[in-house]
User: Which sequence fits this backbone?
């Protein structure tokens, strides 16, 4: 047990104090999602790893955990992509270039890129699960030579919900990215795959010992994707997932994000699958 | 360890003496049948023989509700709430509540140290007092004796109608400088106090039990009686979860961010913005609460995070008993072991 | 432009409206944010469309149904105000008695001249966006909602028990003193104003979502009530939700 005499007093303050940041660019991506580029004062770096999150504040409204969607390899500003789902995000939706938001963080454990280095990387993103994964994708693209194959599977409910369309086109065009996209329900203009994201998995040719998977999506998706990966015989310890919980304080105190005995905001949000497999509340 | 006789009638004098050093907080009667820690104005109002206060000392270090930030929405500037460390004497604290403070210290220091808690806590002085276990106390079962003195600066152990006063450290002996009414004790008489309320197993064995009872029927049986009011969370001296909310002034130009105690037994606790609730059933919430007290942190730190104060049971509107829950789980575990091995665990 | 705000009332005592006029310190600040276009207790003016409409009272006759549909059509945001509008309130006690007997007791031999319906919350007929609970509606709760709407955010819903607010205040528990208190299942947001002065909670704010009714009845019977009496206690403000 830790005791008061284990730390130096006075304790450092500022744990809950947001840094006020400018939105330098904003764009509506879909009916629900809006993209922001945010600058810390003086253009300093956020210093995050792919998969980490920040607490975003709007003064007078509240604070919520939001994944960073840009890569630390692109410095000077960082990007967020926010879906309008709750109170804070509804108000965020109304903010634009020049407006101010508060930022705390980055917090938690992201993807351990060192473990990905030299390996083939399989990315599986469902819905807004692509947002934290985009940080990892950009990281790999910016240091392309350091990684093996980059396979990206991306699925949404409908074509209208696809995010980052220009980038998707770029990934499709690149020779060094194997990009597969699917929608649950197509429309008249859609000529691509139709079906849930798991339908993309059986056809994959994977170099099993040399592949690492990063999976993020809505809660219902994990079970099925993990089952599909299992039937490909990809070892569980080579699979990483990023989980969503109510990470209210971001610093392991408020208790809302507990998954059995773990704190999603401290031990996660990115977990090695084998670390959370024994946790009944995880998936 | 020095030990002195302190006559019961000298306790008010001791309190008056302490008040000159720093503000003193001690148990007072609150309402008809309840107690709470309050600042001492008249020594005569302090209650020495109390069973338990409603809230523990947690309320002084992690207040039920507190302002974290103040801000101007117009100017978009934010300032933290100023917290000045303050020397305060907590008098008449039971050993389980002291142990609860030590556990909270751990939670608040580990990982990101929590400055607000530490600032309020760092200069606190604790004077313990023994108690007669009632129908609800079971601290002995979780390894905390009535006379456990860890964490205290002074400790008063009642012998008949008077007290042994133990001086436990330099802070403790400094407190008594200039207080004349003490007579050294030559032979300390030790005696055991009996707890009626008990866990069936030594606390060392309980994490093992919890390894096997995640899917026990006990949770469902408790859920049938539970109304989810959160009393057990809020009154627990080692629960520290909170929610954070913004509140604006009527002119909508300025505001504050506050935090308020929250509890994992409350329905919205594990709900995320999209509406998904990761613990939407009563039995899941009860299980989480009890695992937090006997398994999750205990696995890391080696001691139960329940201190056996009995508050959750004494104040539960539905009369749900934590010792019953744990003992029923032990029974369930034994039945499982017997079915598996034919040997009584 | 300031939002246009209207107030309407249905079956109730109009105590909630009066309670708003009791905002002596805050009333002028509140009015600075809005254009008040319809408010029977305070002024007489009509406007066709409203940004925020507050509705008080419960639905209890066919004419109420017609009127609330009309109000809903003309309102962008509709807020139910007080126990009658949110839960049916005291009025809904008529639902647990034979309707003919109720009509006779109230109107005597003229009973056939007045059409009646079981008392219902506003949400039984039209979509309700937000609620301010309590009998009368709680003032701090109203202020929270009002500020939230001005800022474009969702008001708090307090989906937890009054017990929580009692504990935050360290009030002595009335149940442990042997009183019949509905705090364990009643929605918070009132800052436990009644238990705070030693008065047991009677459930005027309605119940928490997914209330464990059987367990609450059990608690009350442990305190000496019969099952029938316990259910009646729950029904005082909530007969619409707690049918027999």
Assistant:
């Amino acid at each position: 047990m830790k005791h008061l005499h284990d730390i130096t007093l006075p304790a450092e303050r500022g744990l809950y104090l947001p840094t006020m940041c400018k939105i330098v660019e904003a764009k509506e991506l879909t009916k629900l999602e809006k993209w922001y580029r945010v600058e810390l004062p003086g253009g300093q770096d956020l210093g995050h790893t792919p998969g980490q999150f920040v607490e975003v504040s709007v003064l007078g409204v509240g604070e919520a955990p939001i994944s960073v969607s840009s890569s630390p390899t692109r410095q000077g500003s960082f990007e967020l992509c926010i879906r309008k789902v709750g109170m804070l995000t509804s108000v965020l939706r109304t903010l634009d270039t020049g407006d101010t938001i508060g930022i705390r963080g980055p917090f938690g454990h992201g993807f351990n890129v060192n473990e990905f280095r030299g390996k083939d990387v399989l990315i599986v993103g469902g819905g807004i699960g692509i947002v934290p994964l985009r940080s990892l994708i950009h990281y790999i693209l910016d240091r392309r030579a350091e990684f093996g194959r980059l396979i990206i599977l991306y699925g949404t409910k409908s074509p209208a919900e696809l995010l980052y369309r220009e980038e998707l086109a770029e990934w499709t065009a690149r020779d060094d990215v194997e990009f597969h996209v699917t929608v649950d329900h197509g429309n008249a203009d859609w000529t691509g795959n139709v079906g849930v994201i798991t339908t993309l998995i059986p056809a994959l040719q994977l170099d099993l010992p040399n592949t690492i998977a990063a999976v993020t999506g809505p809660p219902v998706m994990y079970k099925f994707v993990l089952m599909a990966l299992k039937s490909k015989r990809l070892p569980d310890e080579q699979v990483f997932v990023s989980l969503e919980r109510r990470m209210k304080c971001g610093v392991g105190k408020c208790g809302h994000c507990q998954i059995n005995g773990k704190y999603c905001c401290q031990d996660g949000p990115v977990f090695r699958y084998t670390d959370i497999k024994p946790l009944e509340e995880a998936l | 360890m020095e030990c002195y006789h302190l006559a019961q009638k000298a306790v008010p004098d001791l309190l008056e003496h302490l008040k000159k050093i720093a503000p003193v907080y001690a148990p007072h009667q609150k309402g008809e049948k309840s107690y709470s820690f309050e600042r001492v104005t008249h020594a005569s109002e302090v209650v020495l023989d109390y069973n338990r206060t409603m809230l523990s000392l947690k309320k002084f270090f992690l207040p039920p509700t507190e302002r974290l930030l103040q801000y101007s929405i117009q100017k978009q500037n934010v300032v933290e709430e100023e917290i000045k460390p303050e020397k305060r004497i907590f008098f008449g604290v039971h050993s389980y509540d002291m142990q609860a403070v030590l556990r909270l210290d751990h939670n608040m220091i580990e990982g990101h140290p929590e400055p607000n808690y530490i600032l309020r806590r760092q200069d606190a002085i604790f004077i313990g007092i023994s108690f007669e276990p009632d129908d609800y106390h079971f601290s002995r079962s979780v390894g905390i004796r009535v006379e456990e003195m860890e964490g205290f600066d002074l400790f008063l152990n009642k012998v008949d109608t008077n007290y042994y006063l133990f001086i436990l450290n330099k802070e403790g002996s400094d407190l008594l400088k200039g207080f004349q009414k003490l007579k050294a004790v030559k032979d300390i008489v030790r005696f055991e106090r009996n707890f009626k309320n008990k866990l069936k197993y030594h606390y060392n064995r309980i994490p093992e039990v919890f390894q096997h009872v995640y899917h026990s029927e006990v949770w469902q049986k408790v859920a049938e009686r539970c109304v989810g009011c959160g009393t057990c969370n809020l009154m627990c001296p080692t629960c520290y979860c909170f929610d954070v909310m913004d509140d604006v002034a009527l002119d909508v130009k300025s505001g504050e961010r506050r935090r308020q105690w929250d509890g994992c037994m409350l329905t919205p606790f594990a709900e995320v913005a999209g509406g998904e609730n990761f613990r939407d059933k009563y039995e899941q919430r009860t299980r989480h609460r009890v695992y937090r007290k006997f398994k999750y942190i205990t696995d890391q730190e080696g001691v139960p995070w329940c201190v056996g104060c009995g508050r959750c049971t004494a104040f539960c509107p539905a009369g749900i008993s934590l010792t019953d829950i744990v003992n029923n789980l032990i029974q369930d575990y034994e039945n499982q072991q017997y079915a598996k091995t034919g040997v009584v665990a | 432009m300031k939002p246009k705000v209207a107030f309407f009332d249905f079956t109730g005592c109009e105590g909630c409206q009066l309670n708003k006029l009791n905002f002596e310190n805050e009333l002028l600040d509140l009015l600075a944010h809005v254009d008040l276009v319809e408010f029977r207790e305070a002024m007489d003016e009509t406007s066709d469309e409203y940004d925020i409409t507050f509705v008080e009272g419960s639905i209890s006759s066919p004419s109420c149904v017609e009127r609330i549909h009309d109000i809903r059509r003309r309102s962008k945001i509709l807020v139910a105000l007080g126990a009658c509008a949110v839960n049916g309130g005291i009025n809904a006690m008529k639902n647990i008695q034979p309707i003919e007997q109720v009509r006779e007791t109230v109107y005597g031999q003229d009973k056939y001249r007045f059409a009646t319906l079981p008392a219902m919350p506003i949400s039984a007929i039209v979509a309700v966006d937000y609620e301010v609970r309590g009998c009368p509606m709680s003032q701090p709760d109203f202020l929270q909602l009002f500020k939230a709407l001005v800022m474009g955010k969702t008001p708090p819903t307090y989906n937890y028990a009054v017990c929580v607010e009692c504990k935050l205040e360290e009030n002595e528990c009335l149940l442990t003193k042997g009183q019949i208190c509905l705090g364990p299942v009643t929605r918070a947001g009132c800052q436990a104003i009644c238990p705070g002065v030693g008065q047991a909670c009677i459930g005027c704010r309605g119940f928490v979502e997914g209330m464990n009714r059987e367990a609450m009845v059990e608690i009350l019977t442990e305190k000496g009530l019969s099952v029938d009496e316990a259910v009646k206690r729950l029904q005082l403000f909530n007969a619409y939700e707690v049918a027999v």
Remarks:
- Chain A has two domains: 19-106, 113-242.
- The mean pLDDT of chain A is 95.
- The longest strand of chain A covers residues 19-28.
- The radius of gyration of chain A is 19 Å.
